[in-house]
Amino acid sequence: MSKYVEEKAIKSELRDYLYSEATGIADFTQVSARGHFIAAERWTSLHLWVGLPTALMAALASASALSQFEYHTIIAALLGIMVTALTAVITFLNPSEKAYSHKNAGNKYLSISNEARIFGYIDCYQLKDAERLIDQLKEFTNRRNELNESSPLIPSWANKKARKRYEAARTADMPQEDVGDEGDS
Prior knowledge:
With 185 residues, this protein is an all-alpha fold. The protein has one domain. The chain has helices at 3-66, 72-93, 95-126, 130-150, 156-171. The radius of gyration is 25 Å and the shape is rod-shaped. The termini are far apart.
């Protein structure tokens, strides 16, 4: 076998390996992005479901405290206690901040996923410099690892749901960039 044929076979093996690693990173980060988006949705819902009633009860408590009907002080006091409790819950849980953190992490994972997928499907077969390809793959790996360390933990229920949706999308041949969760709860 000639040296040219051997080099070509090695380069082909390397490209196949890089492709496999890149698509593995793309798949992992796609599922992570979905998990973060699902968790962000849940935190946003919690914020709305607790925050809006709290605001309404605060308004009713104020109105009943100023009104002149019988038992207005008792109603105002009960509503005040409920508002205080719900405000403490929303302050402790901080759902809007958690929703933002998950959405931000999901967007970062999605960015890595998209770039790794392009790298795997296009760059691996167009670029000639094997060292540059290896460096690019290492960059994706490092970015993913840093994001794994800095991102909020995906709740297990959100991770399971994300994996299920991802597998459903793969089996239905849907584009993997479509991470929307419309109509699925």
